[in-house]
Amino acid sequence: MPSAATSTALPAPPRPGRTAPGWLVTLLVCAGQFLVILDVSVVNVALPAMRSGLGLSELGLQWIVNAYVITFAGFMLLGGRAADLFGRKRIFVLGLALFTVASLAGGVAQQPWQLIVARSLQGIGAAVLSPATLTILTTSFPTGPARTRAIATWTAVGAGGGAVGGLVGGVLTQYLSWRWVLLINVPVGALVLLGAVLWLTESRQATARRLDIPGALLATAGLGLVAYGIVRTETAGWGSAAALLPLFAGLAVIAAFLAVEARAKAPLMPLGMFRMRAVSSANAAMLLSGAAMFSMWYFLSLYMQNVLGYSPLRAGLSFIPHSLSIVIGSKLAPRLMHKMGAKTLAVCGAALSACGMLWQGTMGVDGTYLGTLLGPGILMAFGAGLSATPVAAIATSGAAPGEQGLVSGLINTSRQMGGALGLSVLSTVAAAHALTGDGPAALASGYGLAFHVGALVLVVAIALMLTALPRRREDATRG
């Protein structure tokens, strides 16, 4: 986490021919991953202040979040491939530099369009940076327990970044300004950038340097149009032209992307890779899990503030047990994988989360923290931590070393795009149900329905894991 990166004493840079210790490599790349995931959720509690400060419209407010998530997911594949071809350290540094500069631009923005552009650039920087973080870990540690522990730490830090985003955003907004939810990235990013330049070592795939730029643009445009169409259904309805036109256009662009990839000499996403059972099944499971679990923080924050009357800071503090649970689950996962196997643990973790979502869906207007939020929240978060590590480990263990960056990009794209699309769909479900009544009770009922639909999505994910995930991946479960 950022505090760890700023308080830990770092050793002298390694001399030529020597490599940095494993703990330092893990610290640097996980600090970068923390910033990337933190910015997915940190702006949520600051949105009202952003709206009043810049005069944002309702649509503009939505795109403060969507601009980051969509460009993050859309360019993730390009980032993973670039890390393989041009060097993992070089791409890590480039992505972190872009992310840090874009954070500064967003923090000083004076117009809505400036903030949205800055968030888009942040998303591109994150897409370049994030795959490199996991690839550096998987290529820095040998197959076995050391690699599994490193992946678990990476997963825990990323999960923690998403979990504490509400708390960090609430504190910064209440005591400083909404601008600091972006500006805080600047000093931390600069420190990690310096450490990466000094201590990380370079590695790359020995092949010709070629990037599939048309594929990246088509993938981003297609995903963006689909997400925009889903968002439009909240106000225009599923049967309206305003929603259907971008949805169908997005699907057409995605079809064009697949056609380009099938014919490209150096495709961004080699379609033959999905013939590997570990890669295809793990990405499908991550997509569904992300669609269900990404919305947990969003709806809990709305429930606490809009129904129970919590302040942003109190809502952020209420997420501390959730954050600890997801980190504990991620850290326990390697030991449990060794005993249970990756597939069994992934299924058990998803089942725990589904039970928590079913429980959380019973929320009402008279809910309390101890009686309504704490128990199901811990169950959902702990299950998410348990399941994410084995799914990621299965996916990366199914690819050759030269394709690790691509697979890392795929698994992150699945997680983030699943989350963006899932949030759009579940928000529509919640809003439509809330319109059937009035006041906080209707809102609570709508949020509860969203959790129940999310639980159903997790049940589908569990069925997929049981039938499609490999029984055992030696790279993921055994030393």
3D architecture notes:
The protein is mainly alpha-helical and 479 residues long. Helices cover 79% and strands 0% of the residues. The chain has 22 helices and no strands. It is globular and about 60 Å long. It is found in: Cell membrane.
Summarize the helix and strand pattern as letters.
HHHHHHHHHHHHHHHHHHHHHH
Helical content, roughly? over 70%
Count of individual beta strands: 0
Strand content: under 5%
Rounded average pLDDT = 79
Instruction: Give the N-terminus to C-terminus distance in angstroms.
Output: 27 Å
How does the overall form come out from the CA principal axes? Answer: globular
Membrane topology: Multi-pass membrane protein
Keywords: Antibiotic resistance, Cell membrane, Membrane, Transmembrane, Transmembrane helix, Transport
InterPro entries: EmrB-like, MFS, MFS_dom, MFS_trans_sf, Sugar_transporter_CS
Protein name: MFS transporter
